[in-house]
Each structure stands twice: as structure tokens, then as C-alpha cells.
Amino acid sequence: MSEVEATLHAYRTKLADGGNSSPFLNPIPEAGGRYEKPIATAHDEGLPIIDLSAFLDPCSSQEARQITAQAINAACINYGFFYLTGHGIPTSLLDEVISLARDFFALPLEEKNKIKRFDAGGPEGGDGARGYQGLGENFTGGLQDMQEAIDWYRDWPTDKKDPNDSAHGSVKTLQGPNLWPEQPSTLKPVYLNYITRVQHVGAALVHAMGAALHLSAPSPTAHASTEDDHIFARNCNASFWIMRMIGYPPLASPHDQFSCGAHTDYGCVTLLHTDATPGALHVQLKDGTWLPADPIPGAFVVNIGDMIERWTNGLWKSTMHRVIHRGDRYRVSVPFFYEPNFDAVVKPLSKCVERTGGKEIHGGSTYGEHLLTKVFSNFYYSKRTDW
């Protein structure tokens, strides 16, 4: 049994009662051989496993937090992906989230279409983003994805809504209400509880990521653009989060078809919860090879998005990944995208610019501007994009 297999075996024994912490995790360059040959190690042993509990426990030691931060830095530099444990969300809730998703996707199409996504500006009152999308409606890189899904977003602030947007057909992109299915009847309350829990994890994670960059200690007079350990946390304190509930039927074609085409995520960090299906999610390593990121029970698969790459000036790169599901069973996943605030200005941090050669990779913009360009390209059409 390899070291990683032994770690996973020990970790899995702790999961039944929601105990997500393990003393065997958090690989760092100074300990073990993973980062001597990171690509070869990933192919042999999988992605690194990081325990976040030190940043969720207010009584944890500074040493424990430093080890976690070092492990995050190494994982983000070498892979842009890792498994996350120690998050405190019980496996019973994680299992229920997947079970309810599977129940929804098993419903007749007529029932699912009761919460169908419609274009912003159309007579149906859709906002172009929220709601159910049928098979093949979503596109990645201009190619049709073989998936169906529901998309939910943080509620649009009431005080920022256009007062003229009260009639059907006048809703701007992203500014409509979330659409929840009538069946299963328990899906909405369970998912709202899950959203609250996973936002807490996201906040702790971006705090740890700020610490991983060795920025200055936070100051009581800090503002949104102050480049200290809390810069990510401050700029995500009203995270414009996104959650997707995705169903993937097995692909029928043996070639040239994707469940979800190769892409990077466009926000901050993704916390992916999925069923036990192996061999579907693939992560592109730095040498161009693809690594299966098979699920570990009770752990999130985490990857950094385009906004983190921009903030770090490419020190941490948003990693290409794809889904090709050719298994026998219908696959379900529920990614949660913990994003910056809609109005957060994201530009390269000065210390990261220094560490990467002194030239900024981007002049900076708000996350909302970046998000809107992505939403408009997810579907081939949108009728109301005026801001």
C-alpha cells in the first residue's frame, strides 16, 4: 500500500461521523517527495489532499495554519487543483445533496421545464442565467455540452435592481430570482442549508490562500484593495456565488463528444461535490497530459479560477479541465463557485507581479464585468444585456 493509499484509508475511516480531519495530509515541498517530480507523482498517486480545519478552528495554532497555507501554495503552483478535507460538512448532508439531485434529474422533462432558464429580455421574464437547462443547451468553447443542469446565483441586491424591471420581458441578465423545483419537495431547504455551510468553507479557504502568498498582516484600517493576508477574504465577503446542479448521461459517441468541454473556471475557487463516478473529470497537468481527478468520499475537489490567476499575476494558474463521462450510470455533480463580490476590482497584486517578472498580465476590472462576458457566451443568445 502506497503512502497516499494509506492516507486515504486512514482518512476514510474518519468520515462516517462527519470527522473530516486527518493528521496525514497537507503535503509541502519540504516534506516527502511529491514536489520533486510533481507530474509523475500526480499520475502515480493523484492530486494532493489538504486539510482546511486549521482555518476553520479559531483555536488552531499558527504553526498548523502555516503548514496548511504552505500546502495550498504548493498545490496551486504545481496543479491548480487539490482535494479539500477538514471542511466540517457532514457526509450525511453531502450524500443528501447528491441524492436529491439524482431524484430531480429522473423527473419527466415537462416537470423539469417548469423552472426552465429563459433569455433576459424575453416575454417569459428570464434573466438569461438562472434556471434549468436541458441537454445540449450549455456550450463550452462553442461546443455543445452533453449535460443538463440548474444554475443558482446569489440574489441580486434589491437596491440595485432597475425600478423599471417590474414587467415580464424587462429583466436584465443575472437580476432575476432563483428558480427552485417543486419536486423533490425537500431539495430547496436542503440546498439552502448546504449553500450556507459551503460559503463558510469558501471564506476559510480564501483566507488560507491569502496567507499562502505571505502578504502583510491585516490592519484595522485596511480597505478592499489593501494587499494583505485578507485581501481575498475582504473581496469575497459578499461573494456573488454560483451553484450548479449537473446531470451527465453516459456519452453515446466514442469520439469527439464531451460531457463538458475543456475550460478554466472564471471566478475565484470551485468546490466540487460529486457522486462516486470514476474516470469522468480530467485535469490538465503542466506537461499537457490529462489526469483523472476521481472523487474521494467526503472531500471536495477544489480548483482555482481565472480571478485568482489574475490576482496572483499567473503565479497560480487557472487549470484547464474537462468532463468525459463514458460510464454506465448517470453522473451527478454539484459544483459551488465561491466568487469575488460582484463589484470587487481584481488586478494583479504588486508582490505577485514582483515574483513573476515585474509585468502585469492584466490591467484589472471588476469581477462582475468578467462574469457577464462569460454568462453571455454560455448560451448562443441573450436578448437583454444592457447595463
Automatic annotation (TrEMBL):
Keyword Transmembrane recorded: no
Domain Fe2OG dioxygenase, residue spans: 239-340
Name of the molecule in the record: Fe2OG dioxygenase domain-containing protein
SUPFAM superfamilies per UniProt: Clavaminate synthase-like
PANTHER family membership: OXOGLUTARATE/IRON-DEPENDENT DIOXYGENASE
Record's keyword terms, sorted: Iron, Metal-binding, Oxidoreductase
Source superkingdom: Eukaryota
MF GO annotations: metal ion binding; oxidoreductase activity
Biological process according to GO: small molecule biosynthetic process
InterPro entries, A to Z: DIOX_N, IPNS-like_FE2OG_OXY, IPNS-like_sf, Oxoglu/Fe-dep_dioxygenase_dom, Plant_2OG-oxidoreductases
Family note: Belongs to the iron/ascorbate-dependent oxidoreductase family.
Pfam (any one): DIOX_N
